[in-house]
Structure formats: structure tokens, C-alpha cells
Amino acid sequence: MKNQTSLVHGREYLAIPGPSVMPDAVLQAMHRPSPNIYDGALIEMMPALTQDLKRVAGTQHEVAIYIANGHGTWEAALSNVIAPGETVLAPASGRFTHGWAEMAEGIGAKVDLIDFGLSSPWDIDRIAEALNADKEHKIKAVLAVHVDTSTSIRNDIPALRALLDDLNHPALLMADCIASMGCDRFEMDAWGVDVTVTACQKGLMTPAGTGFVFFNDKAQAKRAAMPRVSQYWDWQPRANPELFYQYFNGTAPTHHLYGLRAALDLIHGEGLENVWARHERLAKAIWAACDVWAQGGALHFNVADPTHRSHAVTALRLTEGRGTPLRNYTEKQLGLTLGIGLGMEDWDGCFRLGHMGHVNAQMIMAMLGGMETAMAALDIPRGQGALEAVAATLAT
Ligand SMILES: *Cc1c(COP(=O)(O)O)cnc(C)c1O
């Protein structure tokens, strides 16, 4: 660092894979006095809100809303369909699948975990072996993390559905779309997903605090056959409330609902197909820069094959533990915060770029420019011309 003048003052940019950048429209919608929770506008907006939420998930079925983060929705979903002693299958390609599996153990399930490591997507043949061996259909659900945010791997959910159908296996297909919803293409009903969980602070662009569990008739049938379900997590009254307070089993997350309303307006105003296409183009622009930098030998993608990478998050590695110094530089010198490496063996070498939700081309250019600056300041070997490559990608 040759020049010590700090360049940090100004609007900071949090480029981590959740929480994501909060749109001003969302923040402004939340900036209001507490509304009446017994009568009026808040109650009246619920039917359209749930409808528009279901459109983002690609489902005509039900949704239950919880005052919870993503971890809460993991437990909520499991609590409705998995009884103690029942088995779930967890094909893991990163930290988040392990987390969901541990939560299943916590509610008394037996977990059959297949670990695909930290840089590979599911191998459908190995999942097939596990399902084939389960002649008695002890496996009641497959816990499928669509995008594992720790590794940035995107798994093939339609292929898993096809496998379950081929084998005539009745297990529920449960998808974690916390990182992918509103970023990577996901279509719950078309893909035959039975339960989908997500939370509001990533592609849904609302401050952390509400989570959503979508479920279809098959999942509801399993719910109906459960010996008991914890009253707070029970999705039945939440999805079909007779009274407003039943949506939330208590006080509503009032301001979050207004924020979410604004976020859904942004998503449907842009059009979901366009939202997905924007994420894809921006992800490819980021990868174009990284491909050039990688020529210097220090920077590596965690996921080598671009077809298995998420469009919402990119996990990267820098040799000699230079990920942490890079993050420290961009945050302390430039006002740009990059994501830590999560669940990786080499903590200091790994870092992640969040590019989910309310991000556009100029922000991505700024993030990449910040990385170029940090690598220059830290003398990290890198290929030259990364930003030109991004410009060329975006200009075509
Ligand atoms: C962020 C995330 C979670 C955890 O969500 P929290 O809101 O932090 O509890 C779980 N799964 C995936 C895939 C995520 O991206």
C-alpha cells in the first residue's frame, strides 16, 4: 500500500452472498409507522402478496410465511413432514446441505448423507444407488440444496426429480432455494418439487427476518399423516388462515411485509425471466474477469465447470492465503465488502462474491474494479485485461 489516503468514505457496497443489497424502494416502503394488525391495509394486502410470492417460486400450491431466517425454514419444513426415526437422504455439495442435515438429526431424523465434496455437483448415479438400495422406502425425503452458497455449486433438481420418478421412489423432494430464488431459474411445480424453502434477504432483496415454505398436495398428505407437528412450525393454519394472526402464529412481521411487497413489485415489474437473464449475464461478466485473472496462476474458481456454477454467488480461491488480505483491502480501502470463505478447509485462501438480487452492470464493474485495485495493491499475480474482457462481454 503505497498511498495511505483512505478511499472508503461514500456509499459502501456489500457484495456478499446474503444479505444482499437492499433496494431503496424496499427500505422506503419499510420506513413507516406501525400499521394496524387487526384491520385495514396490511390484512388486505396478504392475498396478492402470497400470490406474487408463489409466482416467484413457480408454484400454484401453498405458502407458509415465518418470522425466521433460512435456518428457521429448514426446521419449519422438516417439522411438518419428518417424524422422529424417519430417514432423509442428503446429497451434499457444500456446507449448507450439512447444516440442513444436522437440523434433521436435531428433530430426530436419521440422515443418510452422500458427500460430493466442495467443488462438485451431485453425481446422480450415486444418488440412484442410495435410492435403489432403499427397497422398503425408509427414505421419506431428499434434502436438495439447489445452490450451495458456500461452494457456489448449482445442482440439477430436474435430474433428481427424473431419478425419483424412474425409480418410482415416493420420497418427498425438498429444495433449499435460499440462495437461488429470484436469481437462478427455479420452477417448483414444473420441476416436480414437493417442498421449497427460502428466505427474504438474498434474491428477494428484503432485510433478513422472514422465511417461506412452499408445499404441494403430496407434502400436505405427509403432513396430515404426521403423529404430531410443533404448533409454531405447523404450516396448515399459516397457509390457510381464518384469521390474520394465524398467518404468523402471533404478531405479523409488519414492516417486512411492506418491504417484501416492494421487492415483489421490482421482481415482477422486471419480469422473472428477465431477472434470471440479468443474473446470468452479470455472472458471466464476473467469470470473464476471473478467467483473465486466473492466467496469473494465483486465482482459481472453486467450481471449474461454468455449467455447474450458480448465477448468484461465485466462490474463488487465492493461493498463499491471500483471500483474507484481498477482502480486508477492498473493505478498508475501497468500501467494498466481499464474502468470506464458508465451510472451506483453507479459510484465508477462499472468498466469495455475492451477485444476487438488486445488482446491475455498473455495480458489477465497480466490484471487479475494486478487486483489480486490491490485487494491484497486494501484488497478486494476475492476467492483464480483466476489466476490458468484462466490458467486451457486457457490450455484446
Ligand atoms: C443463506 C443460506 C442459508 C441460511 O440462511 P440464514 O438466513 O442465514 O439462516 C441456507 N441455505 C442456503 C442455500 C443459503 O444460501
Describe this structure in words.
The protein has helices at 24-30, 41-44, 46-57, 70-81, 95-106, 124-133, 157-166, 217-224, 235-239, 254-270, 272-294, 323-334, 361-377, 386-395, and strands at residues 13-15, 62-66, 87-92, 110-115, 139-145, 147-148, 153-154, 172-176, 195-199, 211-215, 299-301, 313-318, 336-340, 350-354. By secondary structure, the protein is α/β, with parallel strands linked by helices. The protein has 2 domains: 25-268, Aspartate Aminotransferase, domain 2 (3-Layer(aba) Sandwich), CATH 3.40.640; 271-395, Aspartate Aminotransferase, domain 1, CATH 3.90.1150. Strands 2-10-9-8-5-3-4 form a 7-stranded mixed sheet, sandwiched between helices. α13 (361-377) packs antiparallel against α14 (386-395). Residues 18, 69-71, 96, 145, 147-149, 176, 178-179, 199, 208 line the site of pyridoxal-5'-phosphate (PLP).
